[in-house]
Amino acid sequence: MARSSDGRERLIEAGVELFSQRPYGSIGVAELCARAGVNKGSFYYFFPSKESLALAVIDRHWTWQKGVWTGILDGPGPMPERLRGLFDATAQMQVDAVTGTGWVAGCLFGNLALEVSSQNEPVRAALQEIFDEQIELISSRLGAAVESGDLPSLPDVDAAAKAIVAQLEGLVLFAKVFNDPSQLDGLWRNSLALLGLTAPAPA
Fold first, then answer.
1. What's the confidence (pLDDT) of residue 165?
2. Of 176, 202, 178, 203, which Cα lies nearest the Cα of 189?
3. Does the N-terminal or the C-terminal CB of the chain have fewer CB atoms within 10 Å?
4. Residue 143 pLDDT exceeds 50
5. What are the CA-CA distances from residue 200 to residues 18, 81, 192, 193 (Å)?
6. Residue 154: how many CB atoms within 10 A of its CB?
7. Residue 73 confidence class, pLDDT cut points 50, 70, 90
8. What count of other Cβ atoms lies within 10 Å of the Cβ of residue 115?
9. Would you say residue 1 has pLDDT above 50?
């Protein structure tokens, strides 16, 4: 039982790594098994298809990312600074990817959405659910900040949260296309504008 569980975990970890680096369609079962150190003949014991592994990878990556986002958004300090912390963490992940591989990795969810969602309904639905949860995570914190007076009144909290997530996802895509993490530098100031705030002048 322990060996079976270990093999499944290693395949998920290999999927997170490979699907973050390369197009989904270019990665085969043999490569996934080789990266995981699992016999190719055992793959279908753990997963009925590459799609089912992809869904497990999406779930695992979101569990990790949601923990990171929640920790930052529920941390100390005013809401604008917590948003800045979220953006800084996102940018640092791309910087780390460039340092390690020479290339911006982009967003696993965004990469899969662009490549697979029009061809694979289960993957599309899983990604939609995650983006909805991302918007809700930010919307709930924005709403609480408005109620506490930490933020000015917003005409539509949900729309503001959706715009922030869309901007974050879009600039991560730009960073990937230009292979340049500095594409994310404007996230905080742009998001402050969405919230009716002005960034302080540089010191």
1. 96
2. 202
3. C
4. yes
5. 40, 12, 10, 12
6. 18
7. very high
8. 16
9. no
Helix ranges (DSSP H) in 23-78: 29-36, 43-46, 50-73
Q: Which of 57, 47, 20, 23 is nearest to 38 (CA)?
A: 47
Q: Which two tokens stand for residue 36?
A: 């995981």
Buried b (16+ CB within 10 A) or exposed e, 24-45: beebebeebbebbebeeeebee
- Sign of the C-alpha dihedral computed for residues 92, 96, 102 and 108 taken in this order: negative
SS (H, E, C) 68-89: HHHHHHCCCCCHHHHHHHHHHH
Mean pLDDT over 112-131 rounds to 93
What are the contacts of 174-183 at 24+ separation with CB within 8 A? 175/94, 175/104, 175/106, 176/94, 176/103, 176/104, 176/105, 176/106, 176/111, 178/104, 179/98, 179/103, 179/104, 180/104, 181/91, 181/94, 181/95, 181/98, 181/104
Average pLDDT, the chain: 91
Whether the Cβ atoms of residue 105 and residue 176 lie closer than 8 Å to each other: yes
State the average pLDDT over residues 24-49.
93
